Amino acid sequence: MSLSISIVLLLLIVAVIFLRSGSMKLSHALVCVFLGFLLAGTSAAPTIHNGISATAGLVSSLNP
C-alpha cells in the first residue's frame, strides 16, 4: 500500500511541475487521470500493478 501511495505522490508532483511550467495543459492531465481510473477497473489492472511492483523491486535492489 505504501508503494502505491508513493507512486501516486511522485506522479502528482511531476504533473504539478508540468502544469506549472506550461508543458502540460490541465485538459491533458484530466484525460490522464480518467484513463488511470478506467484502467484500474479493467482486467489489465493486475498486470500493470505487477509490472510496477517488479520495477520498484528492481530499482530498490540496485546499489549506487
Descriptive report:
81% of the residues lie in helices and 0% in strands. With 64 residues, it is mainly α. It is flat, with a radius of gyration of 14 Å. The mean pLDDT is 81.
List its traits.
81% helix; single chain; 64 residues
Break the fold down into its secondary structure elements and pairings:
Blueprint: H1 2-21, H2 26-40, H3 45-61
Number of helices: 3
Describe the sheet with the most strands: none
Number of separate strands: 0
Following the backbone from N to C, one meets helices and strands in this order, namely HHH
Summarize the structure.
The protein is mainly α and 64 residues long.
